[in-house]
Specification:
The protein is α/β, with parallel strands linked by helices and 382 residues long. Helices cover 50% and strands 12% of the residues. It has two domains: 252 residues, Spore Coat Polysaccharide Biosynthesis Protein SpsA, Chain A; 121 residues, no CATH class. α9 runs antiparallel to α10. It starts with a strand and ends in a 5-residue tail after the last strand. Keywords: Glycosyltransferase, Membrane, Transferase, Transmembrane, Transmembrane helix.
Length: 382
């Protein structure tokens, strides 16, 4: 298989027929499959099945029973299931022209690049189909900011927000990505060094239906940029620092009301563990919640680990201060740093560890000899 065309769909029923028709025409002579990764609530899957039956090009439908990671999660699931040497991601609403597909593939082969971006901002490209001047201005500005944040890794592209791009599957690692929101290309490019080539993209108006981009996607982009730049660990550290301050305030406040310092310390510890847990659930690991163990298990793991960690830390403080000449504040600082690292590792590796989500793949293969029976694959953490 030379080319897998990966198309995320969310309620795109009226666009499917023309899309498949035009992809089939555009990729004549290229060994191609189409992969729909569908999270729809309308009849898109039925339409895909019907349309697939009317065409010779192999069409696969991946329906996600429990969608995680939104559009980006869908794209990653599709890239994992893809079998082509190149996988090209494009939208399912015909804002991306299927006729651009061969140029993406050709560009990749000719340059030996790992990633080929179909860009609205090179000669021959345009974003006229982006609805409204405000949306266009926001798009321009976010590209500028994003490129400024990652000057080296995004050096090779003028459009890191594009939803139309190809990856050479042998060269691009999908592990370690945190898919969320709309900007999966940014996620891929910002995390590793790749060689990038570009082709022009004319971004057309939608054929039918409505865009799923909204304010929430804007906020998601802001969070994504922060995470990519500073890593999850700095948000975790900020919450940890907040917790430490709260701990001291509670300790002080309770003593004012006559509570003994040991009892006050216990209450402060429990309250800050609860506070930290709620904040990390909401702001640090929210994208991993859906794929992790249940909220109660997450809570008990956190409580047990953090409680044990602070008990051991206090004990270690006592032992070290008593047996060496090191200053207690210095020792405590070192212990807090170690404890913080262990807590972060435990949270990200154990508490929010992703279980594998089943994805149903209906192989609808008309006119193609390979692959017949429907299969179920289990892609690694999406
Ligand atoms: N499976 C799945 N799950 N597909 C989704 C989801 C989802 O949660 N949300 C959106 N999609 C699909 C849509 O059905 C469509 O095929 C494609 O993803 C793009 O969604 P649109 O809602 O049409 O997005 P847009 O046109 O506003 O944004 C496009 O252009 C941006 C550049 O301005 C996308 O290509 C963005 O990725 C791109 O950044
Ligand atoms: Mn669109």
């Amino acid at each position: 298989m030379e080319l897998s065309v990966v198309i995320p769909t969310y309620n795109e029923a009226p666009n499917v027929a023309e899309l498949v028709e035009r992809i089939e025409k555009a990729t004549l002579g290229i060994d191609t499959e189409i992969l729909f990764v569908d999270d729809s609530t309308d009849d898109t899957p039925d339409v895909v099945t019907r349309v697939a039956g009317e065409h010779a090009i192999p069409v696969r439908l991946l329906h996600r029973d429990a969608p995680v990671g939104g559009l980006s999660g869908a794209v990653i699931a599709g890239l994992r299931a893809a079998e082509g040497e190149w996988a090209v991601v494009m939208d399912g609403d015909l804002q991306h022209r299927p006729e651009t597909l061969p140029s993406v593939l050709a560009k990749g082969r000719e340059t030996g690049a790992d990633v080929v971006v179909a860009s609205r901002h090179v000669d021959g490209g345009s974003s006229d189909g982006l609805s409204g001047g405000v949306r266009r201005a926001v798009s321009q500005l976010s590209i500028k900011v994003t490129k400024a944040l990652f000057p080296t890794r995004l050096h090779g592209t003028t459009d890191p927000m594009s939803g139309f791009f190809g990856i050479h599957r042998g060269s691009v690692q999908l592990d370690g990505l945190h898919p969320r929101g709309f900007k999966i290309l940014l996620e891929i490019l910002a995390r590793q060094d790749f060689t990038v080539a570009e082709v022009p993209l004319v971004f057309d108006a939608r054929l039918a239906g409505t865009s799923k981009a909204d304010m929430k996607q804007g906020i998601a982009l802001g969070r994504q940029l922060f995470d990519l730049k500073f890593g999850r660990i700095s948000g975790f550290a900020a919450i940890g620092a907040l917790g430490a301050v709260a701990n001291l305030l509670i300790l002080w406040g309770l003593q004012k009301f006559g509570v003994g310092y040991l009892a006050a310390a216990c209450v402060a510890a429990v309250l800050t563990i609860i506070g930290n847990f709620l904040l990390q659930e909401r702001f640090i690991f929210d994208d991993l919640r859906a794929g992790a163990r249940s909220v109660w298990k997450r809570w008990w793991h956190t409580f047990a680990f953090n409680g044990t960690e602070s008990a051991i830390r206090t004990f270690a403080l006592w032992v070290i201060v008593e047996t060496t000449s090191l200053h207690s504040v210095l020792v405590q600082a070192g212990l807090i740093a170690i404890g913080f690292t262990l807590r972060f590792l435990y949270q990200s590796r154990v508490v929010y560890k992703q279980h594998e989500k089943p994805v149903t793949i209906d192989d609808i293969v008309e006119g193609a000899p390979t692959e017949t029976a429907p299969t179920t694959t289990t892609p690694a953490s999406v």
